[in-house]
Amino acid sequence: MSGRTPVITACANGPLLVRGDVEILGDDGEPLDNPRRTVALCRCGASAIKPWCDGTHKLTRFSTEPPPSTS
Ligand code: FES
After folding, report:
1. Which of 24, 36, 52, 65 has the most beta carbons within 10 angstroms of its beta carbon?
2. Which residues contact 23 (CB under 8 A, 6 or more apart)?
């Protein structure tokens, strides 16, 4: 690890971008192989390569905006 402070950026209508020195664990508690120094974590639930974002959020028109009020 390089000692870079982790920064997480919540992208509008998209993934969480993780930059910096951070270890990401799978649900078994084992470290995942981070493919890049900056990784995108899916938060739409539609990615085929979870926990990584594969861009599917664009196809599903995932929105981080709250739904319009119906009252
Ligand atoms: S946030 Fe990109 S595929 Fe889910």
Report:
1. 52
2. 1, 31
